[in-house]
Give the backbone structure.
Amino acid sequence: MFLPLAADPFTAPTDRDMLPSERREFVRTHRTCVFGYRRRNDGPGMSIVYYIPTDDDELLVSTMAGRGKARVIERDGKISLCVLDERWPFSYVQVYTDATLDRDRDVAVDVMMAVAGRMSGQPLGQEARASVEAMCERESRVVIRCRPYATFATPPRHLHRNDQVRQPSHWVSGVVPWDADDPS
């Protein structure tokens, strides 16, 4: 089941690293990310996409079968999603995932319906389903199923005054398993 768009996305703390549970909540309550994957040549491929979180912790991304995002999954199922906070000051959580391709047309339509709702901020009515089905067929839409296994987070940092540059403002974060417990 898809998680609904959060009315109030999780706000990252600015004075400490995010706890593992907060990283998961951040990912579940936001909607855009940079989709990154290894390319055979050159640097990593990256594009900004909407994603749909599910209640079993999958992150679903819609794309066209002929695009690089879909083609790479068949040769390399390791991808990264850099989940973005759309509010200033920006924060992000990078999610490392194992990805698979789902060619089921009904799933592709369901995901595109959900993506439209995330884009507009309102769920798309069932009266639009036939149009979305036609678009998915015309564009050969598929779904990339991303299973998170680890995260990396950086807190939002912003200078509100120039004299803040003399104060320490960053600390070291690290990669944390997706299902890690919060420290006691």
Notes: The longest strand covers residues 141-154.
